[in-house]
Amino acid sequence: MTYIVPNGRALARLLSRLLIAVAAGSALLLGGVANASPVGSLIFDAPPTATVTALGVTPPGRDAIASVTVETLKATVSPSAAGSVQFMEDSTNIGAAVPVTGGIASTKTTLPTGTHLLKAVFTPTDAMMFGSSMSNTASYVVNSPIGENATVSTLRVFPTPVFQGIPVVLLANIAPVGAVGTIQFMDGESALGAPVLATDGFALLITPLPKGEHSLTVVFTPTNQAAFVPSASLPVVLTVAPRF
Questions:
Q1: Are the C-beta atoms of 191 and 182 separated by less than 8 Å?
Q2: Which residue among 87, 114, 128, 202 has its CA within the 20 to 30 Å range from the CA of 166?
Q3: Could you tell me the pTM of the whole model?
Q4: For residue 31, what are the CA distances in angstroms to 15, 20, 43, 187?
Q5: How far is CA 93 from CA 50, 68, 119, 183, in A?
Q6: What is the rounded CA–CA span in Å between residue 50 and residue 65?
Q7: Architecture of the domain made up of 52-142
């Protein structure tokens, strides 16, 4: 018979003064009782390894502008452990939980004007091996736009699903229609080609993409920034499958 004792490291030091087990057939001394027969073994189960979660936000808050800046939230979990991170503003979730890969989890979002209290909560896959942890709260300030008229950028992607070698159609829409300017299509931090002039509130890009996951966005830069505010779309996640 085997007995598993939780938090065994602490109990081991205490019980070592009371329990002396020797080879089968030898005497077992327990609390002053002699000549008792051994009936099993004790396994001291160590507590989960503690984890530490740190949160970073880019770009710096002083550079963030509402409706323009796409913020990246990055959590670092130490030691590296399997699990997921839920990014939060106060008690509200920011998107879905993100799997941890190599001790890192990240997500992108666009925050409105104001001060945001952000944190990251790590939940391990194996709670017997690793403990959960929460980052310190990060205070992040997003500045108001400069121009008089706000713009809104949206992105639609076709087709879905898509396979490697098939061109992807990226269609950007800018509101209001009277906002004249250019659209830069982005794949993560990389530009997809040169900026495209918005015509009647629309811009189009057709391009192949390599296999794998892509985070696609568009950034609108108005010609008259005194009249209109730049804007960026929310990311569209697209997975390009291998050739079929």
A1: no
A2: 202
A3: 0.50
A4: 10, 10, 19, 69
A5: 24, 21, 10, 30
A6: 37
A7: Sandwich (2.60)
CB count within 10 Å of CB 145 equals 18
Cβ–Cβ < 8 Å for 105, 117: no
Name the CATH topology of 152-241.
Immunoglobulin-like (2.60.40)
All CATH 2.60.40.10 domain ranges in the chain, comma separated = 52-142, 152-241
Residue 237, judged by CB atoms within 10 A of its CB (0-12, 13-18, 19+), counts as exposed
